[in-house]
Structures are given as C-alpha cells and as structure tokens.
C-alpha cells in the first residue's frame, strides 16, 4: 500500500561517521571542550534531508550489533578489519572522540520526538530492510552503504537516497537509476555484491570478477544459482578462466549471499514514525542544546521539521533549542 506521506528511514551510523570525519573535532565543541562534531553534523544533515525530501514519517536506525555473530559464523572475514585493537571480539574500531557522541545524539533525537531503533543481533541495515518491507510506501532510505541498493523496489515505492558524496549531493536511486549505474536490477544486487566483493565489509568477492564481469554474468544467467549451473555444465560455453575462478570460490559463494542480504523481518518495537512538527520534550531539548552547544543545529532541525510555517512566529518550536 502506498500512502501520501513518505517515510524517511535514516542509516544513522552511516551519517554520523560521515559527519565525524567531515567536521574537525575542534570546530564543534561543548562548553567544556567535549567534541560534538558528529552530533552537530548529523543534525544538520537530517535537517537538509527533511527540507529536501519533505517526509511525513521519520525513523533513524542504529547498529545494536554492528557485526552479528551469525554473519561472522557464515563468513569469518566479515568486518574483521574494523575490529578494535583492544582484543575484545565484539568491539568495533570507532574513533575515541566519536563513541561518546552517539548517546548525545540519541538523547537529542528522543527529545525532538524522532524514533531511534536498533535490534539485538542485527545491524542498522537489517532495521532499514524491515522498515522498507513492513512500512507502507513510499519509503526513502538515506545511507552511504551500497548494500542497501538491494532494498530498491519501484512497485513498493522504495528508493535509496545514496549519500556517498554527502547529503547535499545525494543521489536518488530507483530501479532505472540502479540499472544505469551498475547494469543490474535491485533483485540481483545481492548476487552482484557477492561476486564483486566489498573490502569495506571484509567481503572478498571472487578474485578477478569486477563490476562489469559480475553484471555481464547476471545479465546472462539471471542469478548466482544460474551462474553455478552453467559453471557445472561443460557444454555451457563458459570461458575457462572465469569458470576456474568461480569454481575456486564455491565455498564463499555458498554462504556470502546470506551475509550480504539484509534481514526484512527483524522484531522491532512499536513506534510512531509521524514527523514531529514540534519537539516532543522541549525542556529536555533546551537543556541538551545548552549543555552540548547544539542550539543552532537543533533549531535548524526543529524548523525544518515544522516546515515553512515554523518561521519566527512559532516560539515553542524554534526557541526550544536556543540558549
């Protein structure tokens, strides 16, 4: 079912990591000197998305488990390069100055009234996949993660707002744009990603198989199952070199699709995604804005949420985040 009010489903880790690395820590600090660059940058990016996309519903997804054990059991190399040097098998290598900012961001979003959702044993990608599959469309997923191209579905009204070059230069992908960029349909994107690999996720891919070869194979054989049938058929006319590469990677190909494919039925708590037109907890927001020197960023987001009617006349909305 399609409704008139689009859902903006935000990949919060993707955006706050980008904000942290895009704004110097010295450029955004609390009165006590604590860096808040990731929080300020995230709030401004979200305000930009709200102004440009006009969502009637908003949810931010978090990583409750950035490297789920069930994915690691399938593919031990999954995100190993991002493990913390501390030796803690579950700790992600996150900049020391970023980690303390995440609870601040969550508190600010809660005060504004924007749901922030994570799920035990699942990544933000899985939360977004579930939202895209269970919430009525249109749904616009904002992320810089290419894996989420698999969620695009024109019939269900699901598009990806790809923020690979930043929110100000986001690219809106539907099935036509995805096909033009990579040569594959959204339904084939998981297999495409498995074949070509992704070093940022510790996904090795099939050595010697890049974007073009992966797209060509999927165009001819439709999916991994079709490719594997052709590989095992001596009469299929498969190029010997490519056949040998795929045969050598058979163990990887047997498990990788389950690692790359986002989960679409994550148990999520009940939530109210309706865009808040004014802060849910204005006193709490004011206190947070003062404590962390976020008045300007909070005001910009609150005014964006309120829409064009916010202006200077809506004292409760815009003044709630001021000193």
Automatic annotation (TrEMBL):
Residues 5-275 form the 5'-3' exonuclease domain. 5'-3' exonuclease acting preferentially on double-stranded DNA. This is 5'-3' exonuclease. It holds the Pfam family 5_3_exonuc_N. SMART domains: 53EXOc, HhH2. Keywords: DNA-binding, Exonuclease, Hydrolase, Nuclease. One of its GO terms (biological process) is DNA replication, Okazaki fragment processing. CDD domains: H3TH_53EXO, PIN_53EXO. The keyword Nuclease applies. One of its GO terms (molecular function) is DNA binding. Gene3D superfamilies: 5' to 3' exonuclease, C-terminal subdomain, 5'-nuclease.
